[in-house]
Amino acid sequence: AGPAPTPAYRLPVTGKLLTGLGELSDAGVRSRGLTIAAAASAQVIAPAAGRILYARRFRGYGVVVIIDHGGGWTSLIAELADASVRVGDQVVQGAPIGHAAAGDAPRVTVELRRRDRAIDIARLLG
User: For the range 24-28, what are the long-range contacts, defined as Cβ-Cβ under 8 Å and sequence gap of 24 or more?
Assistant: First the structure.
């Protein structure tokens, strides 16, 4: 049968899904991506190949990494403790891009966008 085909998109960290696309938070904010409960200091990977557009702290979102996948597709991965990539780096799917926070209840949020519209990642996962 051979190896299974690589999914078009992978979650950036292993863990329990906390919120999905379109869910309302306790504050009444609609989710634009998936939030995953991660292990402390867990390795975070590129969900798909692309070029790093942004990799630094952003307001209250911790370290944010934005990957341009081409064709109008981008991923935004937020709430990282650190980034191991720099703007302009090319990454392959599964390449390390940083780590989740080390404290209590670390989480990582990922948004997939096509031309600035949030896409439901669940349909693309293998």
Answer: none
